[in-house]
Amino acid sequence: MNEQLRTLDHFKASAIDMAVRFGPKVVVAIVILMAGYLLGRWVGRMTERLLRRLKFEAPVRVLLVRAAHLIVFGFFVILALQNLGVELLPLIAGLGVAGAGVALAMQGILGNVAAGLTIIFTRPFHVGDYLSIGAEEGEVLDVTLFSTTLGHTDRSKVIIPNRKIVGEIMHNYGSIRQLDLSVGVSYGTDMEVAYRLVTAILAENTRVLKDPAPVIAVSNLGEFAVAICVKPWVNVPDYVAASGEINRAILETFRREGVEMPVPQREIRMLGA
To answer: How far apart are CA 244 and CA 206, in angstroms?
Structure first.
């Protein structure tokens, strides 16, 4: 019984000694962490305002705001550990060795992260732009640290790892695209009439942009017809729909106005043996 009482007294004395020695340090460490969290949120809000002024896309803003918050909070975590008397050099050395092993095992992921940071800071394209990268093309729907998502007119999506984008030849159409249409008319057609009809068709189509101005010109003198190229500008989401609407309007208008659109013909003569 006496032995148990002495053990309990020893435990109480040790607990009181630990509380006296480390209690104030723990309280100060908690205060430091709370201050770091609050300061990190304030820095995040300031970063958000700055990035909005610089017109960064929403995914990029979220990433950079979180990074700023974590950096500030991480600095205060180091201060809290130092206040508790934790030796940081051995901890940093251990983290360095572990980080090297993780880096070797995650080369592909880290490559995507590095490429994602390159895209974020160089900004070769924005959300809403229409890109062509290698065999893939589409409208940019989202840009993250690891990948970029392209959307097609058939509502499908292509997710491309960022390391497949950086360093590749990229065609950025921006937010508008130019249609490349063509219509053939006979050599006897009054070209001024054909130009006037096509111009009126484009002016009536609400998808066609007024600026830049459409291009209407003779593109080829073919064997059977004169080819007129019709190249109006439209917004990226209207590309497919506008193409169909304009082709139909040209066909119906030319038929109504009597503009001949010849089809290829071959004359075959049979010679007697």
So the answer is: 13
In Å, how far are 4, 237, 273 from 123, measured between CA atoms?
Answer: 71, 22, 73
Fold topology of 176-257: Alpha-Beta Plaits (3.30.70)
Asked whether residue 100 carries a pLDDT value surpassing 80, the answer given is no
Tell me which architecture the domain covering 11-116 has in CATH: Orthogonal Bundle (1.10)
pLDDT in tens, 44-99: 888 888 878 877 766 667 777 887 888 888 878 877 777 666 666 665 655 565 55
The two tokens of residue 239 are 């590309």
Spell 13-46 as b/e; 16+ CB within 10 A means b.
Answer: eeeeeeeeeeeeeeeebeebeeebeeebeebbee
When the candidates are 3.40.50.300, 3.30.70.660, 2.30.30.60, 3.40.50.2300, the CATH number that belongs to 124-174 is 2.30.30.60
Question: Is pLDDT at 1 greater than 70 in this prediction?
Answer: no
Q: Which ranges in the chain are annotated with CATH 1.10.287.1260?
A: 11-116
pLDDT band of 31, cuts 50, 70, 90: confident
